[in-house]
Design a protein that fits this description.
This protein is an all-beta fold. It has no helices and eleven strands. It has strands at 2-4, 8-10, 16-22, 30-37, 44-49, 56-58, 66-71, 76-81, 90-98, 112-113, 117-121. The strands form two sheets. Strands 2, 4, 5, 6, 9, 10 and 11 form a seven-stranded mixed sheet that branches. A four-stranded antiparallel sheet has the order 1-3-8-7, with no helix packed on it. The radius of gyration is 13 Å and the shape is globular.
Length: 123
C-alpha cells in the first residue's frame, strides 16, 4: 500500500514537501503520480515520475513551482511544492502504476492509491 506524509498549512508563497511511502512495494519499479482534489472539484493530475526517475511529467498549473524526486534507499517519492498559492489547497494523493513511464497524468492509469493528505494555503 501507499502512504502519504502529513500535509499542512502554509502561507501563500511558502513551501512544503510531502512524500509517498511504499509498503510492500519497491517504488523504483513503479511510475508514481501525485493527484489532488479540492472540494467541489474534479481530481487533477499534478505530476508523475517514471521508474528510475528518468521522466518527470508536471502539470502546467504547477510547472516551475512543483518538482518530484525519489529517494531509492528509503523507498520514498517526494513532491516538493514551492511558491504555493491558495488554489493549490487540496487533498493530495499519491498513486502507483506498475512499469509506467508517465506519458500523461490520468488517474485511470494508476492501480494503487494512498489515503491522501491535506494541504491548505491561506494567509
Amino acid at each position: 500500500y501507499l502512504e502519504e506524509s502529513l500535509g499542512g498549512t502554509v502561507h501563500p508563497g511558502g513551501s512544503l514537501r510531502i512524500h509517498c511511502a511504499g509498503s510492500g512495494k519497491d517504488l523504483i519499479n513503479y511510475g508514481v503520480g501525485w493527484f489532488r482534489q479540492a472540494p467541489g472539484k474534479e481530481r487533477e493530475g499534478v505530476s508523475c515520475i517514471s521508474p528510475h526517475g528518468r521522466t518527470v511529467n508536471i502539470a502546467d498549473s504547477v510547472k516551475g513551482r512543483f518538482t518530484m524526486s525519489r529517494d531509492v534507499a528509503k523507498n520514498l517519492v517526494y513532491l516538493e511544492m514551492n511558491i504555493l498559492k491558495p488554489e493549490d489547497s487540496a487533498d493530495y494523493y499519491c498513486a502507483a502504476a506498475d512499469n509506467y513511464y508517465c506519458p500523461r497524468l490520468d488517474s485511470s492509469d494508476f492501480q494503487t492509491w494512498g489515503q491522501g493528505t491535506r494541504v491548505t494555503v491561506f494567509a
